[in-house]
Design brief:
Elements (H helix, E strand, L loop, with lengths): L10 E9 L9 E2 L14 E3 L45 E13 L11 E4 L5 E2 L8 E3 L11 E6 L6
Amino acid sequence: MATDPRYMSFDHQYVETVQTTAAVEAHRFVTRGGAYPSAGAYAAGVSVYAAPGQGELTAKGYQVDDGTNAVYEGQLNPSTTPFKTSVFPYQGLLSIVTSGIAIVEVDSTATFAIDDAVVANATGQANDGGQGVVLGRALDAITSAGAGQYIRVKLGNEAGA
């Protein structure tokens, strides 16, 4: 269950929109500035969608900021595309979950027991070790470390709330 976020239950109690100029992956801790926090630092919430960086291909293969390829209305979702000043599709908006339960990608070296404290690493993934601001509690267990795993996180540092 803890390997694919499409099949995990979650409860987005509050979703906020922030502006970003950075490339941000889905299911990562982010700040209100729209970027990953420093390792162990405070994060405002968890990203819902990925925001590709300028000049990168989106998941559907569109060149998002090249200048040589035409971008037609409806090809790109304004809420998940990168920022380009005064060009309508490039609003640089990013949806983040700030309260409730969110799905977060786990650091490839981390393991979790249920109700363990969750902190962020420098790429916004859930981490179990080191010093830092506790961003939430793990609702799933990860017994063997590895890449591509996800857990549900109850945002906030209160246990069982």
